[in-house]
């Protein structure tokens, strides 16, 4: 066990997380780090590796040493060397992968284990290697942080890790991403919004079918559009073909990655956030939408009910009629939409990054035996 050499706990954070290809990981670390700094706790953070341009102001940075030129090489070789050079008491790996078998205590954040529980969603040639590395990282870590009670139970089942080594630390939310002048969403109303990468587990065909059904009804929903903000992981062609086959190719609007300012505008102008996902470790867009006063209709699946509670409409993932009627109620009943928006805003107020940071610091302290 590490011995803390001063009054402050010196924690090394894997700096590559700041440029992670996963938007959720980037949002996690960029919100968590300043919140940790604002705690006033006996804590000193050091960013290990990654680009110096990504290092938040005021934090020390330990450059990457020479290591095999892969992410695996960085995590297993470069990161432990950087941690040793920085003299850290604890290493926090905020995105699934962590050094294995090192003497320094390690805390790893695992947001979900969908890749382990549903490998059929990830048919990549070397995905078995990623799963093996994730498993070894989790089993070797001193403590595991995850975002929800659902994910804690899934991690326990997937990796046979004792439940008392897993800490549930819910995420927080920023009321607005961008503090500048409002920008236009660029989508004609009415539209429903989905935020997040577009892949199989997001179950978006059910929303395309619901939107098409509502368009056929006419009236206020005749021009309804599904706006998709996120990276395409091989699903866009299928969704667009489904809409085109119904004679309404304009029913699906693919936006790709959007700026924070535009994302705020999309939340503001959407009649609802739709989140039909089959599996989530948390579901941060649900929380973001609630914080911005956007009505939410989401799957009654995995962690999503933990986040949404009774502040939105929950629907069985495959129930197209349920999604259709739920969306129709939100669009056709302004009073109900306003009530859901108010309930969501009130619920989101309990999810703060200050609380996330405090709980994270307490995990650090447990990991080093303080």
Notes on the structure:
This protein is α/β, with parallel strands linked by helices. It folds into 2 domains: 9-172 and 352-367, 3-Layer(aba) Sandwich (Rossmann fold); 191-348, Glycogen Phosphorylase B (Rossmann fold). Helix content is 40%, strand content 15%. It has helices spanning 23-37, 71-86, 114-117, 127-140, 149-159, 205-217, 236-245, 260-269, 284-291, 304-308, 320-332, 334-348, 353-367, and strands at residues 9-14, 43-48, 60-62, 90-93, 106-109, 143-146, 166-168, 191-195, 225-229, 252-256, 272-275, 296-299, 313-315. Helix 6 (205-217) packs across helix 11. The termini are close together.
Question: What is the structure about, briefly put?
Answer:
The chain has 370 residues and is α/β, with parallel strands linked by helices.
Annotated CATH homologous superfamily of the largest domain: Glycogen Phosphorylase B
Named CATH architecture of the largest domain = 3-Layer(aba) Sandwich
How is the biggest beta sheet arranged? 7 strands, parallel
Low-confidence runs (pLDDT<50, min 5 residues)? none
Give the strand tally. 13
Tally of DSSP helical segments: 13
How many discrete domains?
2
**In CATH, what is the class of the largest domain?**
Alpha Beta
The secondary-structure element order is EHEEHEEHHEHEEHEHEHEHEHEHHH
Look at the helices and sheets and give the structural class. Answer: alpha/beta
The backbone outline, from C-alpha atoms, is: globular
> What is the terminal-to-terminal distance?
11 Å
How helix-rich are the residues, as a percent range? 40-55%
Using only CA atoms, what is the Rg?
A: 21 Å
Mean pLDDT: 94
CATH topology term of the largest domain: Rossmann fold
The main sheet orders its strands as: 3-2-1-4-5-6-7
Percentage beta strand: 15-25%
């Amino acid at each position: 066990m590490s011995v803390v050499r001063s009054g402050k706990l010196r924690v090394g954070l894997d700096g590559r997380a700041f440029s992670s290809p996963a938007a959720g990981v980037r949002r996690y670390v960029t919100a968590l780090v300043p919140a940790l700094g604002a705690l006033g706790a006996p804590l000193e953070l050091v960013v290990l590796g990654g680009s110096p341009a990504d290092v938040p102001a005021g934090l020390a940075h330990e450059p990457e040493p020479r290591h095999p030129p892969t992410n695996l090489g960085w995590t297993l070789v470069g990161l432990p060397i950087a941690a040793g050079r920085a003299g850290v008491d604890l290493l926090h790996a905020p995105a699934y992968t962590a050094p294995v078998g090192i003497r320094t205590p390690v805390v790893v954040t695992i947001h979900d284990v969908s890749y382990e529980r549903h490998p059929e969603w990830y048919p990549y040639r070397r995905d078995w290697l990623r799963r093996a590395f994730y498993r070894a990282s989790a089993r070797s870590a001193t403590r595991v942080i995850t975002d929800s009670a659902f994910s804690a139970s899934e991690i326990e089942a997937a990796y046979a890790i004792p439940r008392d080594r897993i800490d549930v630390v819910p995420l927080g939310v920023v009321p607005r991403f961008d503090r500048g002048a409002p920008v236009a969403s660029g989508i004609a109303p009415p539209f429903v919004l989905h935020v997040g990468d577009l892949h199989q587990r997001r179950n978006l065909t059910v929303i395309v079918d619901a939107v098409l059904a509502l368009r056929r009804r006419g009236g206020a929903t005749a021009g309804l559009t599904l706006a998709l903000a996120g990276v395409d992981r091989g699903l866009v062609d299928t969704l667009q073909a489904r809409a085109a086959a119904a004679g309404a190719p304009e029913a699906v609007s693919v936006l790709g990655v959007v700026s924070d300012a535009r994302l705020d505008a999309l939340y503001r102008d959407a009649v609802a956030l739709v989140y039909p996902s089959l599996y989530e470790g948390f579901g941060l867009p649900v929380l973001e939408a609630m914080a911005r006063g956007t009505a939410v209709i989401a799957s009654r699946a995995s962690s999503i009910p933990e986040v949404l509670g009774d502040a939105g409409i929950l629907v069985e993932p495959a129930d197209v009629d349920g999604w259709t009627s739920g969306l129709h109620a939100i669009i056709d009943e302004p009073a109900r939409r306003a009530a859901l928006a108010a309930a969501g805003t009130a619920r989101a107020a309990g999810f703060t990054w200050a609380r996330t940071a405090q709980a994270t610091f307490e995990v650090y302290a447990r990991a080093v035996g303080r």
